[in-house]
Amino acid sequence: MKKRARPAAALVADGAGEIFELEGYAAVGMAGESWAVLTSDNAIPMPRGGELMFLPDRLPVLYHLEKGIFQTLNEDPRRPGEKIFPVAAFNSPGYVARLACAFEEAPGACELPLFSYAAAGWRNGGFHTAALCVDREKRQDLRFMAREKVVAGIREMRRKMPKNRLRKHLESCALEHGCPAGKNFFLKRFEAPLPLSRTCDARCLGCISLQGPGRIKCGQERISFTPSPEDIAEVALSHIQNVRRAVVSFGQGCEGEPLMDADVIERAIRLIRSQTRRGTIHLNTNASRPQEAARLFDAGLDSMRASMNSVRPACYHAYFRPVDYTFSDVEDTIALALAQKKFVSINYLNCPGFTDTPGEINALASFIRRLPVHMIQWRNLNFDPGRYPALMRRALGSENPVDERPAGMKHALAHIKKQFPKIKYGYFNPPKEKFGA
Protein backbone atom coordinates (compact mmCIF):
# COMPACT_ATOMS: atom_id res chain seq x y z
CA MET A 1 0.00 0.00 0.00
CA LYS A 2 1.37 3.43 -0.97
CA LYS A 3 2.38 5.75 1.86
CA ARG A 4 -0.13 8.47 1.03
CA ALA A 5 -2.94 6.21 -0.16
CA ARG A 6 -5.95 6.43 2.13
CA PRO A 7 -7.57 3.07 2.83
CA ALA A 8 -11.30 2.47 2.68
CA ALA A 9 -12.80 0.89 5.78
CA ALA A 10 -13.91 -2.73 5.51
CA LEU A 11 -17.57 -3.56 4.96
CA VAL A 12 -19.05 -6.85 6.13
CA ALA A 13 -22.55 -8.21 6.68
CA ASP A 14 -24.14 -10.30 9.38
CA GLY A 15 -26.36 -13.32 8.83
CA ALA A 16 -29.44 -11.12 8.46
CA GLY A 17 -27.82 -9.19 5.61
CA GLU A 18 -27.18 -6.02 7.59
CA ILE A 19 -24.08 -4.28 6.23
CA PHE A 20 -21.73 -2.45 8.57
CA GLU A 21 -18.21 -1.07 8.84
CA LEU A 22 -15.68 -3.20 10.68
CA GLU A 23 -13.47 -0.94 12.76
CA GLY A 24 -9.72 -1.52 12.52
CA TYR A 25 -9.85 -3.21 9.14
CA ALA A 26 -9.52 -1.94 5.57
CA ALA A 27 -11.47 -3.21 2.57
CA VAL A 28 -9.66 -5.58 0.22
CA GLY A 29 -10.15 -6.42 -3.45
CA MET A 30 -8.85 -9.37 -5.40
CA ALA A 31 -7.71 -10.11 -8.93
CA GLY A 32 -7.43 -13.86 -9.17
CA GLU A 33 -5.18 -14.87 -6.30
CA SER A 34 -3.76 -11.36 -5.79
CA TRP A 35 -5.09 -9.12 -3.00
CA ALA A 36 -4.95 -5.34 -2.72
CA VAL A 37 -6.20 -2.83 -0.15
CA LEU A 38 -8.90 -0.44 -1.40
CA THR A 39 -7.52 3.07 -1.27
CA SER A 40 -8.03 6.51 -2.75
CA ASP A 41 -5.80 5.30 -5.62
CA ASN A 42 -7.96 2.43 -6.82
CA ALA A 43 -11.49 3.14 -5.58
CA ILE A 44 -14.09 5.79 -6.43
CA PRO A 45 -17.36 6.88 -4.81
CA MET A 46 -19.92 4.23 -5.65
CA PRO A 47 -21.86 5.38 -8.75
CA ARG A 48 -25.57 6.08 -8.47
CA GLY A 49 -27.73 3.09 -9.25
CA GLY A 50 -25.28 0.51 -7.93
CA GLU A 51 -26.22 -2.07 -5.33
CA LEU A 52 -24.47 -3.73 -2.40
CA MET A 53 -24.84 -7.44 -1.68
CA PHE A 54 -23.40 -9.88 0.79
CA LEU A 55 -21.94 -13.19 -0.38
CA PRO A 56 -23.14 -16.43 1.23
CA ASP A 57 -20.83 -19.37 2.00
CA ARG A 58 -17.80 -17.10 1.91
CA LEU A 59 -15.34 -15.56 4.37
CA PRO A 60 -14.23 -11.93 3.98
CA VAL A 61 -10.56 -11.19 3.35
CA LEU A 62 -9.67 -7.92 5.10
CA TYR A 63 -6.56 -5.91 5.94
CA HIS A 64 -5.73 -5.47 9.63
CA LEU A 65 -4.57 -1.87 9.85
CA GLU A 66 -2.59 -2.15 13.08
CA LYS A 67 -0.85 -5.43 12.24
CA GLY A 68 -0.39 -4.58 8.58
CA ILE A 69 -1.50 -8.02 7.35
CA PHE A 70 -4.29 -9.60 5.34
CA GLN A 71 -6.67 -11.73 7.36
CA THR A 72 -9.53 -14.07 6.54
CA LEU A 73 -12.23 -13.78 9.19
CA ASN A 74 -15.00 -16.27 9.94
CA GLU A 75 -16.57 -14.23 12.74
CA ASP A 76 -16.93 -10.70 14.02
CA PRO A 77 -13.85 -10.02 16.21
CA ARG A 78 -15.98 -7.77 18.42
CA ARG A 79 -18.68 -10.42 18.87
CA PRO A 80 -17.11 -13.88 18.93
CA GLY A 81 -19.35 -16.54 17.44
CA GLU A 82 -21.23 -14.08 15.19
CA LYS A 83 -20.61 -14.97 11.56
CA ILE A 84 -19.77 -12.24 9.06
CA PHE A 85 -19.82 -12.28 5.28
CA PRO A 86 -18.09 -10.37 2.45
CA VAL A 87 -19.84 -7.37 0.85
CA ALA A 88 -19.56 -6.61 -2.88
CA ALA A 89 -20.82 -3.90 -5.22
CA PHE A 90 -22.85 -4.50 -8.36
CA ASN A 91 -22.01 -1.27 -10.16
CA SER A 92 -24.06 0.78 -12.59
CA PRO A 93 -23.71 0.36 -16.37
CA GLY A 94 -20.66 2.16 -17.69
CA TYR A 95 -18.32 1.13 -14.85
CA VAL A 96 -15.78 -1.70 -15.04
CA ALA A 97 -14.53 -3.42 -11.91
CA ARG A 98 -10.83 -2.95 -11.16
CA LEU A 99 -10.90 -5.49 -8.34
CA ALA A 100 -13.41 -8.10 -7.27
CA CYS A 101 -14.57 -8.43 -3.67
CA ALA A 102 -11.91 -10.43 -1.79
CA PHE A 103 -13.09 -13.63 -0.13
CA GLU A 104 -12.35 -17.27 0.50
CA GLU A 105 -14.95 -19.97 -0.03
CA ALA A 106 -16.27 -21.95 2.90
CA PRO A 107 -16.40 -25.73 2.44
CA GLY A 108 -19.31 -26.77 0.22
CA ALA A 109 -19.92 -23.21 -0.99
CA CYS A 110 -22.59 -22.69 -3.62
CA GLU A 111 -21.78 -20.95 -6.88
CA LEU A 112 -22.57 -17.25 -6.77
CA PRO A 113 -25.54 -15.95 -8.80
CA LEU A 114 -24.87 -14.27 -12.14
CA PHE A 115 -23.76 -10.80 -11.11
CA SER A 116 -20.43 -9.00 -11.06
CA TYR A 117 -18.89 -8.53 -7.63
CA ALA A 118 -16.66 -5.47 -7.37
CA ALA A 119 -14.77 -4.72 -4.18
CA ALA A 120 -16.48 -2.18 -1.89
CA GLY A 121 -15.55 -0.16 1.18
CA TRP A 122 -16.48 2.92 3.21
CA ARG A 123 -14.59 6.20 3.07
CA ASN A 124 -15.36 9.89 3.63
CA GLY A 125 -18.90 9.15 4.72
CA GLY A 126 -19.89 7.13 1.66
CA PHE A 127 -19.56 3.82 -0.12
CA HIS A 128 -16.58 3.39 -2.45
CA THR A 129 -15.90 0.73 -5.06
CA ALA A 130 -12.93 -0.42 -7.14
CA ALA A 131 -14.14 0.65 -10.59
CA LEU A 132 -13.28 2.59 -13.73
CA CYS A 133 -15.75 4.68 -15.72
CA VAL A 134 -15.79 3.77 -19.43
CA ASP A 135 -19.06 5.43 -20.51
CA ARG A 136 -20.80 8.46 -18.96
CA GLU A 137 -23.95 8.30 -21.09
CA LYS A 138 -27.16 8.24 -19.03
CA ARG A 139 -28.81 5.64 -21.27
CA GLN A 140 -29.54 3.23 -18.43
CA ASP A 141 -29.61 5.62 -15.50
CA LEU A 142 -32.65 4.57 -13.48
CA ARG A 143 -33.15 8.12 -12.19
CA PHE A 144 -34.52 9.02 -15.62
CA MET A 145 -36.87 6.03 -15.84
CA ALA A 146 -39.77 6.92 -13.57
CA ARG A 147 -42.25 4.06 -13.43
CA GLU A 148 -45.25 6.32 -14.06
CA LYS A 149 -43.66 7.55 -17.28
CA VAL A 150 -42.89 3.97 -18.39
CA VAL A 151 -46.50 2.98 -17.69
CA ALA A 152 -47.75 6.00 -19.67
CA GLY A 153 -45.56 4.94 -22.58
CA ILE A 154 -46.90 1.40 -22.38
CA ARG A 155 -50.48 2.67 -22.60
CA GLU A 156 -49.62 4.77 -25.63
CA MET A 157 -47.98 1.84 -27.42
CA ARG A 158 -50.92 -0.42 -26.63
CA ARG A 159 -53.16 2.04 -28.46
CA LYS A 160 -50.78 2.35 -31.41
CA MET A 161 -50.01 -1.37 -31.86
CA PRO A 162 -52.62 -3.37 -29.91
CA LYS A 163 -51.94 -6.73 -31.58
CA ASN A 164 -48.15 -6.56 -31.64
CA ARG A 165 -46.73 -9.52 -29.68
CA LEU A 166 -43.24 -8.04 -29.44
CA ARG A 167 -44.65 -4.87 -27.88
CA LYS A 168 -46.42 -7.04 -25.29
CA HIS A 169 -43.21 -8.93 -24.53
CA LEU A 170 -41.33 -5.67 -23.99
CA GLU A 171 -43.96 -4.62 -21.46
CA SER A 172 -42.99 -7.63 -19.37
CA CYS A 173 -39.30 -6.79 -19.80
CA ALA A 174 -39.85 -3.22 -18.62
CA LEU A 175 -42.24 -3.79 -15.72
CA GLU A 176 -41.57 -7.32 -14.42
CA HIS A 177 -37.85 -7.62 -15.03
CA GLY A 178 -36.88 -3.95 -14.79
CA CYS A 179 -35.00 -4.07 -18.11
CA PRO A 180 -33.57 -0.59 -18.86
CA ALA A 181 -33.62 -1.28 -22.61
CA GLY A 182 -37.30 -2.20 -22.45
CA LYS A 183 -38.03 0.92 -20.44
CA ASN A 184 -36.19 3.10 -22.95
CA PHE A 185 -38.47 1.92 -25.75
CA PHE A 186 -41.57 3.06 -23.89
CA LEU A 187 -39.85 6.27 -22.82
CA LYS A 188 -38.82 6.99 -26.44
CA ARG A 189 -35.13 7.25 -25.57
CA PHE A 190 -31.84 6.00 -27.02
CA GLU A 191 -31.91 2.29 -27.93
CA ALA A 192 -34.92 -0.04 -28.34
CA PRO A 193 -34.52 -3.83 -28.00
CA LEU A 194 -35.81 -6.26 -30.64
CA PRO A 195 -35.54 -9.73 -29.06
CA LEU A 196 -36.68 -12.68 -31.18
CA SER A 197 -34.60 -15.85 -30.81
CA ARG A 198 -35.66 -18.78 -28.62
CA THR A 199 -32.59 -20.90 -29.38
CA CYS A 200 -28.82 -20.58 -29.19
CA ASP A 201 -25.75 -22.30 -30.59
CA ALA A 202 -23.71 -21.72 -27.43
CA ARG A 203 -24.10 -22.84 -23.82
CA CYS A 204 -22.48 -19.94 -22.00
CA LEU A 205 -21.59 -20.61 -18.39
CA GLY A 206 -23.02 -17.22 -17.47
CA CYS A 207 -26.13 -17.20 -19.68
CA ILE A 208 -28.74 -15.09 -17.88
CA SER A 209 -31.75 -16.54 -19.73
CA LEU A 210 -31.06 -20.30 -19.80
CA GLN A 211 -29.26 -22.62 -17.39
CA GLY A 212 -29.29 -26.39 -17.06
CA PRO A 213 -31.04 -28.24 -14.20
CA GLY A 214 -29.37 -27.77 -10.83
CA ARG A 215 -27.29 -24.78 -11.92
CA ILE A 216 -27.61 -21.10 -11.16
CA LYS A 217 -31.08 -19.59 -11.42
CA CYS A 218 -31.59 -17.46 -14.52
CA GLY A 219 -31.87 -13.71 -14.07
CA GLN A 220 -34.69 -13.38 -16.61
CA GLU A 221 -37.01 -15.44 -18.76
CA ARG A 222 -36.15 -16.19 -22.38
CA ILE A 223 -38.63 -15.08 -25.02
CA SER A 224 -41.10 -17.92 -25.72
CA PHE A 225 -42.04 -17.07 -29.31
CA THR A 226 -40.49 -15.69 -32.48
CA PRO A 227 -42.01 -12.31 -33.41
CA SER A 228 -43.00 -11.81 -37.03
CA PRO A 229 -40.92 -9.53 -39.26
CA GLU A 230 -43.95 -7.22 -39.42
CA ASP A 231 -44.19 -6.93 -35.62
CA ILE A 232 -40.45 -6.30 -35.35
CA ALA A 233 -40.55 -3.62 -38.04
CA GLU A 234 -43.55 -1.91 -36.42
CA VAL A 235 -41.73 -1.61 -33.07
CA ALA A 236 -38.48 -0.50 -34.74
CA LEU A 237 -40.15 2.12 -36.96
CA SER A 238 -42.08 3.55 -34.02
CA HIS A 239 -38.82 4.07 -32.16
CA ILE A 240 -36.91 5.46 -35.15
CA GLN A 241 -39.69 7.91 -35.98
CA ASN A 242 -39.87 9.26 -32.42
CA VAL A 243 -36.26 9.30 -31.23
CA ARG A 244 -33.37 11.45 -32.37
CA ARG A 245 -30.34 9.31 -33.22
CA ALA A 246 -32.36 6.18 -32.50
CA VAL A 247 -30.80 2.74 -32.23
CA VAL A 248 -32.79 -0.50 -32.56
CA SER A 249 -30.98 -3.70 -31.74
CA PHE A 250 -31.37 -7.43 -32.16
CA GLY A 251 -29.75 -9.65 -29.52
CA GLN A 252 -30.88 -9.13 -25.93
CA GLY A 253 -30.50 -10.83 -22.56
CA CYS A 254 -33.98 -12.32 -22.85
CA GLU A 255 -33.17 -14.37 -25.96
CA GLY A 256 -30.74 -16.83 -27.48
CA GLU A 257 -28.53 -16.12 -30.49
CA PRO A 258 -30.26 -13.86 -33.06
CA LEU A 259 -28.31 -15.29 -36.00
CA MET A 260 -30.30 -18.50 -35.44
CA ASP A 261 -33.25 -16.52 -36.87
CA ALA A 262 -31.41 -14.61 -39.56
CA ASP A 263 -34.22 -15.10 -42.07
CA VAL A 264 -36.69 -13.27 -39.78
CA ILE A 265 -34.19 -10.49 -39.08
CA GLU A 266 -33.38 -10.05 -42.77
CA ARG A 267 -37.05 -9.61 -43.66
CA ALA A 268 -37.56 -7.20 -40.75
CA ILE A 269 -34.57 -5.07 -41.79
CA ARG A 270 -35.82 -4.88 -45.36
CA LEU A 271 -39.25 -3.78 -44.13
CA ILE A 272 -37.67 -1.06 -41.98
CA ARG A 273 -35.38 0.15 -44.73
CA SER A 274 -38.21 0.19 -47.25
CA GLN A 275 -39.74 3.01 -45.20
CA THR A 276 -36.78 4.95 -43.79
CA ARG A 277 -33.02 5.33 -43.95
CA ARG A 278 -33.03 6.94 -40.53
CA GLY A 279 -32.00 5.15 -37.35
CA THR A 280 -29.24 2.68 -36.59
CA ILE A 281 -30.07 -1.02 -36.96
CA HIS A 282 -27.70 -2.98 -34.76
CA LEU A 283 -26.96 -6.62 -33.96
CA ASN A 284 -25.65 -7.97 -30.64
CA THR A 285 -24.39 -11.46 -31.41
CA ASN A 286 -21.89 -14.20 -30.70
CA ALA A 287 -20.91 -13.81 -34.39
CA SER A 288 -21.02 -17.57 -34.91
CA ARG A 289 -22.51 -17.67 -38.41
CA PRO A 290 -20.70 -15.63 -41.08
CA GLN A 291 -23.05 -16.54 -43.93
CA GLU A 292 -26.17 -15.49 -42.02
CA ALA A 293 -24.48 -12.28 -40.92
CA ALA A 294 -23.63 -11.49 -44.55
CA ARG A 295 -27.33 -11.58 -45.45
CA LEU A 296 -28.05 -9.02 -42.74
CA PHE A 297 -25.26 -6.72 -43.89
CA ASP A 298 -26.72 -6.81 -47.41
CA ALA A 299 -30.21 -6.08 -46.07
CA GLY A 300 -29.07 -2.88 -44.35
CA LEU A 301 -27.66 -3.74 -40.91
CA ASP A 302 -25.51 -0.80 -39.75
CA SER A 303 -23.45 -2.19 -36.89
CA MET A 304 -22.53 -5.34 -35.03
CA ARG A 305 -21.24 -6.16 -31.57
CA ALA A 306 -19.57 -9.54 -31.05
CA SER A 307 -19.54 -10.94 -27.51
CA MET A 308 -16.46 -12.64 -26.13
CA ASN A 309 -14.84 -13.28 -22.78
CA SER A 310 -11.43 -13.78 -24.37
CA VAL A 311 -9.74 -13.67 -27.76
CA ARG A 312 -7.84 -16.86 -26.95
CA PRO A 313 -9.78 -19.78 -28.46
CA ALA A 314 -9.27 -22.14 -25.52
CA CYS A 315 -10.65 -19.60 -23.05
CA TYR A 316 -13.48 -18.56 -25.36
CA HIS A 317 -14.56 -22.18 -25.83
CA ALA A 318 -14.36 -22.91 -22.11
CA TYR A 319 -16.87 -20.15 -21.33
CA PHE A 320 -19.13 -19.99 -24.42
CA ARG A 321 -19.10 -23.76 -25.00
CA PRO A 322 -20.09 -23.52 -28.69
CA VAL A 323 -22.38 -26.23 -30.06
CA ASP A 324 -21.63 -26.13 -33.78
CA TYR A 325 -19.15 -23.33 -34.40
CA THR A 326 -15.64 -22.32 -33.33
CA PHE A 327 -13.85 -19.10 -32.49
CA SER A 328 -12.52 -18.99 -36.05
CA ASP A 329 -16.14 -18.49 -37.21
CA VAL A 330 -16.36 -15.48 -34.88
CA GLU A 331 -13.23 -14.03 -36.43
CA ASP A 332 -14.58 -14.67 -39.94
CA THR A 333 -17.82 -12.83 -39.13
CA ILE A 334 -15.93 -9.85 -37.74
CA ALA A 335 -13.62 -9.79 -40.79
CA LEU A 336 -16.66 -9.87 -43.08
CA ALA A 337 -18.33 -7.00 -41.21
CA LEU A 338 -15.18 -4.89 -41.45
CA ALA A 339 -14.89 -5.65 -45.17
CA GLN A 340 -18.50 -4.50 -45.60
CA LYS A 341 -17.62 -1.19 -43.86
CA LYS A 342 -19.89 -1.90 -40.90
CA PHE A 343 -19.20 -0.45 -37.46
CA VAL A 344 -17.87 -3.30 -35.32
CA SER A 345 -17.58 -3.49 -31.54
CA ILE A 346 -16.60 -6.32 -29.27
CA ASN A 347 -18.58 -6.93 -26.12
CA TYR A 348 -15.56 -7.75 -23.98
CA LEU A 349 -16.60 -9.52 -20.78
CA ASN A 350 -14.09 -8.64 -18.07
CA CYS A 351 -13.00 -10.23 -14.82
CA PRO A 352 -10.05 -8.90 -12.78
CA GLY A 353 -7.46 -11.63 -12.38
CA PHE A 354 -7.86 -12.84 -15.95
CA THR A 355 -8.68 -9.98 -18.32
CA ASP A 356 -5.82 -7.92 -16.87
CA THR A 357 -3.13 -10.61 -17.16
CA PRO A 358 -0.25 -10.01 -19.60
CA GLY A 359 -1.22 -13.07 -21.63
CA GLU A 360 -4.76 -11.84 -22.22
CA ILE A 361 -3.74 -8.21 -22.79
CA ASN A 362 -1.16 -9.22 -25.41
CA ALA A 363 -3.62 -11.58 -27.07
CA LEU A 364 -6.19 -8.78 -27.32
CA ALA A 365 -3.63 -6.47 -28.90
CA SER A 366 -2.74 -9.14 -31.46
CA PHE A 367 -6.43 -9.70 -32.20
CA ILE A 368 -7.03 -5.98 -32.87
CA ARG A 369 -4.01 -5.82 -35.20
CA ARG A 370 -5.55 -8.60 -37.29
CA LEU A 371 -9.13 -7.39 -36.96
CA PRO A 372 -9.18 -3.62 -36.37
CA VAL A 373 -12.54 -3.31 -34.64
CA HIS A 374 -13.82 0.19 -34.02
CA MET A 375 -14.83 -0.12 -30.40
CA ILE A 376 -14.39 -2.16 -27.24
CA GLN A 377 -17.37 -2.23 -24.93
CA TRP A 378 -15.74 -3.00 -21.60
CA ARG A 379 -18.36 -4.89 -19.61
CA ASN A 380 -18.20 -6.79 -16.34
CA LEU A 381 -18.52 -10.55 -16.58
CA ASN A 382 -21.48 -11.67 -14.49
CA PHE A 383 -19.88 -14.75 -12.96
CA ASP A 384 -18.32 -15.92 -9.73
CA PRO A 385 -14.93 -14.07 -9.57
CA GLY A 386 -13.49 -16.66 -7.21
CA ARG A 387 -13.97 -19.47 -9.71
CA TYR A 388 -13.65 -17.85 -13.12
CA PRO A 389 -9.84 -17.24 -13.23
CA ALA A 390 -9.22 -20.86 -12.24
CA LEU A 391 -11.52 -22.03 -15.03
CA MET A 392 -9.51 -19.99 -17.51
CA ARG A 393 -6.18 -21.30 -16.19
CA ARG A 394 -7.40 -24.85 -16.69
CA ALA A 395 -8.52 -23.97 -20.20
CA LEU A 396 -5.01 -22.74 -20.95
CA GLY A 397 -3.60 -26.04 -19.73
CA SER A 398 -1.67 -24.82 -16.72
CA GLU A 399 -2.55 -24.10 -13.11
CA ASN A 400 0.01 -21.29 -12.90
CA PRO A 401 1.09 -19.87 -16.28
CA VAL A 402 4.10 -17.58 -16.01
CA ASP A 403 2.34 -14.76 -17.88
CA GLU A 404 -0.83 -14.78 -15.80
CA ARG A 405 -0.07 -12.48 -12.85
CA PRO A 406 -2.55 -9.61 -13.19
CA ALA A 407 -1.20 -6.21 -14.21
CA GLY A 408 -4.41 -4.37 -13.26
CA MET A 409 -7.49 -3.38 -15.23
CA LYS A 410 -6.40 0.25 -15.45
CA HIS A 411 -3.15 -0.89 -17.02
CA ALA A 412 -5.02 -3.18 -19.43
CA LEU A 413 -7.21 -0.36 -20.75
CA ALA A 414 -4.28 2.07 -20.97
CA HIS A 415 -2.04 -0.46 -22.73
CA ILE A 416 -4.58 -1.18 -25.48
CA LYS A 417 -5.42 2.51 -25.92
CA LYS A 418 -1.75 3.40 -26.26
CA GLN A 419 -1.28 0.84 -29.03
CA PHE A 420 -4.56 1.68 -30.77
CA PRO A 421 -5.31 5.36 -30.02
CA LYS A 422 -8.23 5.52 -32.48
CA ILE A 423 -10.19 2.70 -30.89
CA LYS A 424 -13.30 3.78 -28.99
CA TYR A 425 -14.03 2.73 -25.43
CA GLY A 426 -17.53 2.57 -24.06
CA TYR A 427 -20.42 0.50 -22.80
CA PHE A 428 -23.38 1.33 -25.06
CA ASN A 429 -24.02 0.81 -28.78
CA PRO A 430 -23.49 4.17 -30.51
CA PRO A 431 -25.84 5.59 -33.17
CA LYS A 432 -24.39 5.85 -36.66
CA GLU A 433 -24.14 9.63 -36.25
CA LYS A 434 -21.32 8.95 -33.78
CA PHE A 435 -19.47 6.21 -35.67
CA GLY A 436 -16.80 8.65 -36.80
CA ALA A 437 -16.79 10.84 -33.69
Automatic annotation (TrEMBL):
The keyword Phosphoprotein does not apply. Gene3D superfamilies: Aldolase class I. Its cofactor is [4Fe-4S] cluster. Residues 186-422 form the Radical SAM core domain. It holds the Pfam family Radical_SAM. Keywords: 4Fe-4S, Iron, Iron-sulfur, Metal-binding, S-adenosyl-L-methionine. It comes from the Bacteria. GO terms for molecular function: 4 iron, 4 sulfur cluster binding; catalytic activity; metal ion binding. Coiled coil: none annotated. The keyword Isomerase does not apply. This is Radical SAM protein. It comes from uncultured Desulfobacteraceae bacterium.
